[in-house]
Specification:
By secondary structure, the protein is α/β, with parallel strands linked by helices. The chain has 2 domains: about 1-120 and about 290-320, Medium-chain alcohol dehydrogenases, catalytic domain (Quinone Oxidoreductase, Chain A, domain 1, Alpha-Beta Complex); about 125-265, Rossmann fold. The protein is about 30% helix and about 25% strand. Strands 3, 4, 5, 6, 7, 14 and 15 form a 7-stranded mixed β-sheet that branches. The chain has a 6-stranded parallel β-sheet with strand order 10-9-8-11-12-13, with helices on both faces. Strand 14 (about 290-295), helix 10 and strand 15 form a beta-alpha-beta unit. The N and C termini lie close together (about 10 Å).
């Protein structure tokens, strides 16, 4: 099979197309023929070697994908050869024509959801769900601010927040992004390039501030986030690319909380609970991934450059 292989940590260019042996399923394992693989910022962090512990070299990147069960090992009970599935983590990586997965890592993909959309479920929606409901404990009627709402996790957060009865404010990098975010259910869409956007948020909330902030770039925004929190507000840090200076009194004076999260730290039980909830969302269309740019598998290097430069919106996908 063709696959992207990383034999050393470094810039996107360390990813090379290689010809590897097809995976074979062991006990309670399946092989999925991948029709689409999702690209996430976390893939770039792992490739660069900035996560510790990182993957063991050499490795195939990718945690998200969708396709059809091609082979099943002994002990597999919940899926069968030919089933449409989305992949939530693998044993081998999804930037490939085929992926080896534990049975617990594959989930049914309804016929109305395309393979490209299916490849956009795992990381974006798991992160959004965990941030909103497990970490922030967001409740119906509260106001949530989603920074970077036009990205994969951002769109997922908008959709899940709206479905749960939250008032959603999203910030975006472009006019097109603002249109997209409003279409996905945000009550307000603002430009985070505007220095006035924090003032606009305070006007929207009539000076009260927001109950929850989902923060995709804490090194840039966290200090400002703390100044627009309501009493007992919560910031959940989903992403960060460096250090930041904050005033702790902004937290103290609001009785606020700053919460971290990392999907890679969740237990199998936690992940199964999240995907059970997402399965309902796929059925009732609360979960509806928006696909941005699609690349052939051979252009994974370009995809990694673009996702880190923030030049696209929606879910970025590789097609093997």
């Amino acid at each position: 099979m063709k696959a992207i292989c990383v034999r050393e940590f470094g810039p996107p260019e360390v990813m090379k197309v290689d010809e590897l042996e097809d995976p074979k399923p062991g006990f309670a394992e399946v092989v999925v023929k991948i029709y689409a693989a999702g690209v996430n910022p976390v893939d770039t962090y792992l490739r660069s070697g900035s996560y510790s512990p990182g993957p063991v070299l050499p490795y195939i990147p990718g945690m998200d994908g969708a396709g059809v069960i091609e082979a099943a090992g002994e002990g597999v009970k919940k899926v069968s050869v030919g089933d449409r599935v989305y992949v939530a983590g693998t044993l081998s990586g999804t930037y490939a024509e085929k992926a080896l997965c534990k049975e617990s890592q594959v989930h049914p993909l309804p016929d109305k959801i395309s393979f490209e959309q299916g490849s956009g479920v795992n990381v974006p929606y798991s992160a959004a769900y965990h941030a909103l409901f497990n970490r922030a404990r967001a409740k119906r009627g509260e106001t949530v601010l989603v920074h970077g709402a036009d990205g994969g996790v951002g769109i997922a957060s908008v959709q899940l927040g709206r479905a749960a009865g939250l008032r959603v404010i999203g910030t975006c990098s472009s006019d097109l992004g603002q249109i997209l975010v409003k279409e996905q259910g945000a009550d307000y869409a603002l430009s985070h390039n505007s220095p006035e956007h924090t003032g606009e948020i305070m006007k929207i909330t009539e000076g009260r501030g927001v109950d929850v902030v989902l923060e995709m770039l804490a090194n840039v925004n966290l200090g400002k986030d703390l100044g627009i929190l309501a009493e007992n507000g919560r910031v959940v840090i989903i992403g960060s690319r460096g250090n930041v200076e904050i005033n702790p009194r902004d937290i103290m004076s609001r009785n606020a909380s700053v919460l971290g999260m990392l999907l890679l730290k969740l237990s199998e039980r936690q992940l199964l609970d999240i995907h059970a909830a997402l399965a309902d969302g796929l059925k009732n269309s609360a979960v509806r991934p928006v696909i941005g740019k699609k690349f052939p598998l051979s252009e994974a290097v370009q995809a990694h450059h673009e996702i880190m430069e923030g030049v696209s919106y929606g879910k970025m996908v590789l097609i093997p």
